[in-house]
Amino acid sequence: MTAIVEVNNVHKSFGQNEVLKGIDLHVEEGELVVMIGPSGSGKSTFLRTLNQLETIDEGQIVIAGWDLSDTKTNINKTRENIGMVFQHFNLFPHLTVLENMMLAPVELGKADKATAKENAYKLLDRVGLRDKADARPATLSGGQKQRVAIARALQMNPKIMLFDEPTSALDPEMVGDVLDVMKQLSNEGMTMIVVTHEMGFARQVADRVVFFADGYIREAGEPNELFAHPKDPRLQDFLNKVL
Ligand code: ADP
Ligand code: MG
């Protein structure tokens, strides 16, 4: 096995506020890592550094062999290998589902229109939304929008998918459908890093759970072990609150 994501000693501050205080994380190809932790502990900032939406102050990030701090690394190329799904779906409201899906691959010259369209239909099938191809985002439920957002990220054929609280903005009855799509994606071999408060999902499908607090990874491990026998007092406290 080779690590597709290698993070070594990453530090990041916003002004005086040191948010990441030396993060180390290696993720193997095909692995599903769930990140949990209190609000403000740096989870989103960490995910954003992987996609170069944030710069880092110190340390090293290597994604699929590309060292992000190497000035010779083509940032757009590495970014194409990483799909990102956010809490809010960020679909373009004036475009249909199909147009939303075709936009990036066509604009970036990754596919011609016909190919992008064909791929879009395949991916919409995969998330169970082919019949919504011509709908506008405003007519979809939150769960449907999030499934479109996942399908759209897959259009670029990424090697890694990052999810930042993908179900936090959804009504409870929508959460299961989105988690099912994510499970399926993981079963198909996608490498995934998922920030979530869905502890059931973490327990069932994560290969590894990583606990963030105060800018550090305080504990990491196989989910059953980590949930049953948390060692770090901050993790014990956190689990008491969320479970
Ligand atoms: P989490 O996702 O775990 O809730 P975040 O990574 O969003 O945590 O935030 C960690 C800390 O970094 C918080 O104190 C937050 O206010 C701060 N922060 C995040 N983004 C910025 C930014 N762009 N500018 C200044 N501070 C930020
Ligand atoms: Mg966050």
TrEMBL record:
Q: Organism source for this protein?
A: Weissella muntiaci
Q: Which PROSITE patterns match?
A: ABC_TRANSPORTER_1, ABC_TRANSPORTER_2
Presence of keyword Transport: yes
The segment(s) forming the ABC transporter domain are: 5-239
Q: Enumerate the InterPro entries for this protein.
A: AAA+_ATPase, ABC_ATPase_HisP-typ, ABC_transporter-like_ATP-bd, ABC_transporter-like_CS, MetN_ABC_transporter-like, P-loop_NTPase
- What keywords is this UniProt entry annotated with? ATP-binding, Nucleotide-binding, Transport
Provide the protein name: Amino acid ABC transporter ATP-binding protein
Record field: transmembrane: none
Q: Which PANTHER family match?
A: AMINO ACID IMPORT ATP-BINDING PROTEIN, ARGININE TRANSPORT ATP-BINDING PROTEIN ARTM
What GO molecular functions are on record for this protein?
ABC-type amino acid transporter activity; ATP binding; ATP hydrolysis activity
- Presence of keyword Transmembrane helix: no
